[in-house]
Amino acid sequence: MNPDLYLRTTTCPLCSNEFKTVKVKHDGIRLLRRDSDLCEYYKKENPYFYEINVCPKCGFSFSDTFKDGLTDKQKEKFIKTISLHWKKTDYCGERTIEEAIEAFKLALLSGQTIGIKNSTLAGLCLRISWLYRLLHNKEEEERFMKSSIKAYEKAYELEDTNRGGDISPEIMLYLLGELNFRIGNISDSSKWFSYAIAKCNSDSLINPQIDKMIRDRWIEIKDEIKE
Ligand SMILES: [Zn+2]
Fold first, then answer.
1. Which residues, other chains included, contact 109 with Cβ-Cβ below 8 Å and sequence gap of 6+?
2. Labelling 194: which of 57, 83, 132, 175 has CA 20 to 30 A away?
């Protein structure tokens, strides 16, 4: 195996199967740069490729941050809709970018089936969009960006967006502004950026670097809109 990768033991939260799956060693991660929608580029191994664990036995796919216990009802629904049709594909070894995308799509399907939070679904869509960006597939990149926007909008409406969730409220507002700008929805982009700036002005707990990132990007976007 590539020396920057290793096998880690994980337990499936759905069927309790214990399996080994590839992860990137901490030392193997070298961040090069970050796009304005927070997509990161790496010099060596890309940790996005191995973010999702796919249970080879039942097909349940989840990220390392998935900590929720599953109810019997959720398990039953997943087994009926997914596991019974699961063609026991093994995603536990080294992955190509296409396999990484498949793993994320399985996580999205798993999440939708058991009903996870919209903010988490939005994050999965965004990562799929980023992987398509690496493949220079504009069409799919935009398609998943749009799904991410929809899910973040629902999250903003329905979830408690106070601190302590998967994503901080100011980052969610920032991403809604940024992603809408990227797909050409200028009026929506302006709306979400104005919410993000209002949040920065009213919330003293915001990390100063994040506060600066949001304000700087909004100035850049306003300039681009004028042109
Ligand atoms: Zn499983």
1. 61, 82
2. 132
- The pLDDT tens digits of the residues spanning 7-43 come to 999 999 999 999 999 999 999 899 999 999 999 999 9
DSSP state of 3: T
Q: Where are the domains of the chain?
A: 1-116
Taking the centre of ligand 1 as the mean of its atom positions, its distance from the CA of residue 75, in whole angstroms, is: 10
Centroid of ligand 1 to alpha carbon of 17 (angstroms):
5
Whether the CB-CB separation of 174 and 196 falls below 8 Å is answered with yes
The amino acid at residue 161 is T
Q: What are phi and psi of 30, to 5 degrees?
A: -130, 105
Rounded to two decimals, the pTM is 0.95
Name residue 20's beta-bridge partners.
Answer: 9
Helix or strand run (H / E) with residue 18: strand 18-24
Q: How many residues does the chain have?
A: 227
DSSP-derived letter for residue 164 is: T
- The Å distance, Cα 108 to ligand 1 centre, comes to 15
Q: In Å, how far are 91, 165, 172, 213, 226 from 49, measured between CA atoms?
A: 11, 23, 23, 26, 38
